[in-house]
Amino acid sequence: MYEDFYRFKEKPFNLTPDPRFLYLSKQHQGALDHMVYGIRQREGFIAVVGDVGMGKTTLCRCLLDLLEDKFKVALILNPMMSDMDLLRTCVHDLGVKPANLQMAVAKDVGAEGDVATITKEPVDLNWIHDASKKQLIDSLNAFLLEQHDQGGSTVLIIDEAQNLSPEVMEQLRMLSNLETEKAKLLQIIFVGQLELNQKLQRPELKQLNQRISIRYEVTPLSKSETIKYINHRIMIAGAGSRIAFTYFALKEIYSYSQGCPRLINLVCDRALLAGFNAQVDTIERSHVNQGIRSLLGDEDKNYFITRLKGRLPLVASVIFFLMGLAFFLAPNFIADKASGSASKISPASIPPVALAPVSRDILPAPVVAKSVIPALMNENPPRIEETSAKLASTPSPMDNRGKYLIQIFSLSHQDRAEIEVKKLQSEGYQAYWKKAESPEQDWYIVYIGPFENVKSARIHLKALKFSGRKKPILLSITKAP
Q: Closest by alpha carbon to 178, among 128, 134, 138, 125?
């Protein structure tokens, strides 16, 4: 329907197992390599499993194209049959003649040597319907020996092998006994869903399970492989097509399909139909969602609601993060608006604020305000809030009426602290120092304040930063008793 509009030679996302469209991902290439290796090395039994829609049947078709003429192959697509029906199907697909006829042909070949003429004669397979199990097995054995003598090999591929009954599996195990002293005459490949592994674990199939020498599981495509898979099929269907999928459309396809090739084909086909109806060359996420809705049955009708619920924890986390960030930045924003051009205020123009002395031998709890960054102290002393130091009292004429202090310096010598205090006082600040005693070294902390409200404290903090002081710290203090 949309092939002409998008300039496709054929539909790119058909569900038929066409080996031309096979995208050899790492998993599919691995499965193919294991099957070819097992056949060439005459390993006997091979098991390739994968979930529904992984492209296992397409792999079987591709394997048939890879094998040379010397390999005789029988492909069974519907194994839900009796052991006799399976045996007849295998003999029929391989074109096996009756055992007595094969022996007569062998004698004629030995006498005349005209192999080409005899092997090209048409084979009448009507004998199969009336043959007994012994006649079928004897004829098959003669055929396998003939193939081996001519340097060939015989392969039996059973698709949907998870549907095999235990009786048929046991029959196949018996067929694997057709061998020479050095080689297996029949290579049997089980291709099935993951349930095949569980079936092989049954006690009655223990002997068969032990004979499987090569096992491989085909897993879903990754996100990058899904994108390559879609591009590969579009290119095969029409290299000159004018279609393009957006990144978000491809992301939505992978989210729905989880890398399953069959589901990718289904949703891409419906998305192309939605794009054709809209007469657009670019498939958007909305077109993919339309395609998904057309595929959902009653049991999956809440697919989009379920996806939304799955994303709620992430959405809630983002919302709480943004709320926390806004709460964290709000005081700064309000203070900045209120202070206006406070960064341009000269320190000398700021009115002095009365400062009361802090009680002796008590270190005010330095709870850092929300907008305060970690301290950068001079001479790299330890952070005062990380020590068990006591502040030694120094004479001060001020009462403890404030709630906020600004820490300016942490110095290792008292005389330097006194010099900095005098310098700050000469600039109009209410400054003083306190001694912090610690086991390693005493420190002399220079403060400005206290301030009754955070707005006034922030104005002075900005002025101090403007004057070149290295990262003064705004502290919220607790009044001493």
A: 138
| Per-chain mean pLDDT for the chain | 78
- Give pLDDT tens digits for 92-122: 999 998 877 766 555 555 544 544 444 445 5
- In the chain, where the domains are located: 3-10+222-301, 26-218, 304-340, 356-476
Dist. CA 151–CA 156, nearest whole Å: 17
Residue with tokens 């600004």: 406
Task: Please name the fold of domain 26-218.
Answer: Rossmann fold (3.40.50)
Match 């090395």 to its residue by tokens.
Answer: 41
- What is the CA 396 to chain-centroid distance, rounded? 66
Residues 6+ apart with CB under 8 A from 433: 394, 414, 417, 418, 420, 421, 444, 445, 446, 447
Contacts of 459 (CB under 8 A, 6+ apart): 339, 342, 345, 350
Q: Please give the model's pTM, rounded to 2 decimal places.
A: 0.61
Q: Are 50 and 193 in contact (CB under 8 A)?
A: yes
What is the DSSP-derived secondary structure letter of residue 100? Answer: H
Q: What number does CATH give the domain 3-10+222-301? A: 1.10.8.60
